[in-house]
Amino acid sequence: MASTSATSSTSATANLVSTLGAGSGINMSQLAEQLAAAQFAARLDQITAKSDRITSQISSASTLRSMISSLASSLGDRVRTGDLAATPQITNASIAQVSKGAATGRGTSTLEVTSLAKAQTLVSPALASETTPVGAGTLTLRFGTVVGNTFTADASRAQVDITIAAGATLDDVASAINARGTGVTAYVAPGASGPQLVLKGEDGAANGFKLEATEDPANPGLAALAWDPATNLTRLKTPATDAAYILDGVARTSKTNTITDAAPGLSLKLTGTNPGAPTTISYSDPGAAITSAMQDLTSALNEMVSELNKDTNPTTGALSNDPGARALRRQLTTLASAQVMPANTTGAPTTLADLGLRTNRDGTFTLDAERLAATVKRDPIGTGAMFTTGLFGVYATFDKMARSVSSSSDPSSLGGTIARLTKLQTTLGTQRTTMETKQEDLRQRLVSRFAKLDTNISGSKSTLSFLQAQIDAWNGKNN
To answer: Of the candidates 382, 374, 301, which has an alpha carbon nearest to the alpha carbon of residue 336?
Structure first.
C-alpha cells in the first residue's frame, strides 16, 4: 500500500531528528529516499486510485460488451445449423437432395426431373501400348454445342491450341490438355483393345467441344486423336446436356445439377429422373427448436440484465453514470417491441414479443410460452423465417446490437467507453512515470546534498574529538 504524503514526511522528519539527536551516524541514502517519497506520495496515491477505478470500469464495460457479442455469435451459430427455420424435405430422395435456400420456404412444391445435366465424354482410338508415340503437332479445342452430328461453335469462347512434341505418348497428351485448365480434363484408360485417351468437359450443353489436329509432317499420327461429330459419332460416349426439370409446374433448365435458390427457401442437387411421376417437397415445422432457442435467449438476456444492474448501481456500480451502459439499457428496454421483420406481410410475426419475449417492470425478461406457441401454430413458416442470417430477423437484431455497443467510435457505446477509459489509463500511466522520474531526481539531489552534509559533520566530529583530547591532556598536566 502506498503511504500518504503526511505519513512519509512525518516518518522522514522523525528519523532525521532521532538520528541527529542521538548523535550517531546518519543513513543519508535512506533519509533521501524517505523525503523524496514524502514529496510525491500524495500525487502518486491519487494516480493509483484513479487507475484502479478506471481498471474496474474497463473490466465491467468489457464484460457487458462480451456478453452481448457472445449472445449474438451463439445465436448466429444456432441459426446457421438450420433447425430454427423451415427446412425442405423431399418425398423421393433418389431424385434430388434438397437444402434450405437464402429465404424461407412455405407450403409444398412438386418436382419432376426429365434429364440430368451431363458433361461430354469423348474417347480416342486404342493404341498398341502406353509407350506408342502419337505423333507431333497441334491439337485445337473448340467449344460450343453438339446436337446430333452438328457442332455449333460458341463465338464467345476462344479456341485453345495444345502443342504436342515429337515422341509424345497418350499420357503426355493428357498432361498437356490438363495443364491448359480449359475445363476439359483428360486421362488414359487401359481399354480392352489397348490404351485410350478419355476427354471430359464440364456439365451443360454449352460446354460441348470438338478436337482438331494439325500434324507435323515429319511425325504424323496426331490426326487419329481429332474428332468432329460430322465424321464420327461412335467416339462420343456422352453428349453434353442441360438438366431439365419441372418445379411447381414451370419447365426449367440448368447447365448444372446443383441449383441454388430454385425457389424461395429451396436449393436442389438433382440426382435422378422421374418423368411423369412428380415428387413432393414440403417444409419441416421448427416449433420445438424455436421454443428451446427462445428459452435460452431469455436466460441469456436476464444474465446480462443482472450484470448491468450490478454495474450501474448508484452507490457501488463501476458504470453508475456511464453513457454506454445507459445506451445498452435503453436498447434492452425496447427490445421486445422492436420490429425485427419489417417486411413481413400482415398477420405474420414481426417482433420478439410475437415470439413470447416479455419485458418486466424491473427490466428483466420472461418468456410467454402461450403467446409463442400461438404464433408458431398460426404461422410456423413465418416464425421460422425470423431465424435467418439475412438483413432482418432475430439474429440480425442482436448482431446489430452487438456491433453498436462495441463501436469504439461512438462515445455513447460501451466500445466508446472502453476506448475513452483506455486512453485515460494511458495518460495516467504517463503521469505516473513522470512523477516517479521527478521523485528519483529529487532523491538523487538529496543524496548528493546529504553526502556533503555527512562529510561536514564527520569533519566537525573529528575536530571536536581532537579538541576534547587536547583539553583532557591539559587537564591531566594541571593535576
So the answer is: 301
Q: What is the number of residues in the chain?
A: 479
For residue 433, the one-letter residue type is T
Name every residue whose Cβ is closer than 8 Å to that of residue 261 and which is 6 or more positions away in sequence. Answer: 101, 102, 103, 267
Q: Cell numbers 444492474 label which residue?
A: 309
In Å, what is the CA distance from 162 to each residue of 22, 174, 206, 352? Answer: 106, 10, 21, 62
Task: Kindly give, in sequence order, each residue whose CB lies less than 8 Å from that of residue 365, ignoring residues fewer than 6 positions away.
Answer: 298, 301, 302, 305, 336, 357, 358, 359
Question: Three-state SS for 189?
Answer: strand
As a whole number of angstroms, the distance between CA 130 and CA 189 comes to 10
Render 198-256 in DSSP notation, one character per residue: EEEEEESGGGEEEEEEEEBTTB--GGGG-B-TTT--TTEEE--B-EEEEETTEEEEESS
The proportion of the chain whose per-residue pLDDT surpasses 90, expressed as a percent, equals 63
Q: What kind of fold does domain 119-238 have according to CATH?
A: Immunoglobulin-like (2.60.40)
DSSP state letters, 284-310: ---HHHHHHHHHHHHHHHHHHHHHHHH
Distance between CA atoms of residues 12 and 121, nearest Å: 98
Q: Which has the minimum average pLDDT: 90-94, 137-141, 413-417, 451-455?
A: 451-455
Q: Where along the chain do its domains lie?
A: 5-56+421-474, 63-82+286-417, 88-116+243-283, 119-238
> What is the C-alpha to C-alpha distance for residues 369 and 380, in angstroms, rounded to an integer?
15
Q: What pLDDT, in 10s, does the model give residues 359-395?
A: 999 999 999 999 999 998 888 778 888 888 888 899 9
Listed in sequence order, the residues at least 6 apart from 305 whose beta carbon sits closer than 8 Å to its beta carbon are 332, 363, 364, 365
Express each pLDDT in 394-404 by its tens digit. Answer: 999 999 999 99
